[in-house]
Design a protein that fits this description.
Elements: H1 3-10, H2 27-38, H3 41-53, H4 56-84, H5 88-91, H6 97-136, H7 142-159, H8 161-190, H9 206-215, H10 218-222, H11 225-228, H12 234-263, H13 268-274, H14 278-307, H15 315-331, H16 335-363, H17 379-396, H18 401-413, H19 423-428
Amino acid sequence: MTTEEKKTKNVEATALQAISMNDRKDWISLAFVQAGICVCVPAFLLGAILAEGMPIWPAIISGSLGYLLVVIGMVVTGMMGCDLGLASCTCCEAGFGGKGARFIVSTIFAVNMIGWFGIQNGVCGEAFSNAVLAMTGINIPVIISNTVWGLIMLLTAVYGVHALEKLDKISIPVLMAIMCYGTFLAFKIFGTDAINDEGTVQTMSFMSGVALSFNFTAVGTITASDYTRFQKSRKDTVKSVFYGVFPMGVITLVMGILLTKMSGQYDISLVLIDVGLPLLGIAALVISTWTTNATNAYSGGLNIVKAFNLNDNKRREATLIAGIVGIILCDIGVLGQIETVLSLLSYVVCPIGGVILADYWVVGKGKAENFRPKEGVNWAGVISWALGATIAYTIVKIEFAGIVAGFVIYLIVERFIPSTSRDNLKNAA
């Protein structure tokens, strides 16, 4: 094999074709990728919000229950991806139809992923410039930090899941060591007396805490198939999701809560900078952003391929487009104005999960052979998605309620507009 052939082999080329069993990975490799998705600045922020809204133990328990719901959601959507070997946007072709998946699902997913790539890139770039200025007096323009780190994170995504796996196997243990050391130093400096609930006024209900914890990872829950399509079995999917998401999610959550109570800072990187270890702080910031943001660009690329009906071997180019657009939006300051819009988009993401789960697990009996993509639009799915999003946003006002609403409504509407996933069942009868 020539050097050029080796390079091509190491770069994941296709996007929407089913992953063959020969290209599947062990669950441990994917568990590291799942863990990398969970550890980021917003995950620490979740702990801070819970810490400010309720006492320590209710905050920890409610946040942990939210992550448990995330795990359950990722398992049931992830098993579907594992069974079919397909990315999340392609898994929607039965519930929404090919055109519905392309124009509705992939567009929503792409906007979310590109937007959050840019937002997290901006957080990393600004903090990096500020830290370097504080340490050395050298003023690196934020736009340069944004662009350089954005491109580095993007290139990992361009190489695909194999590169994400390599990155996370190295970075997650390093990040864990830095996080634990930083928390130890915080305890040493601020003392355990700083952790108390005196004066804490409970402004958030327990169930609101559970919902908030789920909502922070809502999009990742629905798009779990982008990564679990590389798993060899449902059992491996359960292992990689549980051991990858739950421990790291809860650890990050607890650290955010404790650091907020002790120091008033929820971000471990800022705590390390404050206690005089800026290099470790910068390392924690960059690694935690990198492991998460590379997956944003990767999933964004998959959805661009689908949304624009590109050739399947254009995944690398589509990923580059996703990341570069995110970097540009970040550099010109647009994302600061649309973060609220991106948060609202989670209301329209969750019902997508309800529709595809109802179609695959109930209508199709959870069997891959009953999955029948529809070429046009499955109006049962589109109607259920729209009603589910409306109910979640205007009535329940909880994002993940959209999953339940979309699920239930689809089972009702599908009786009147049968899904093609029923075809095999009819033939069997």
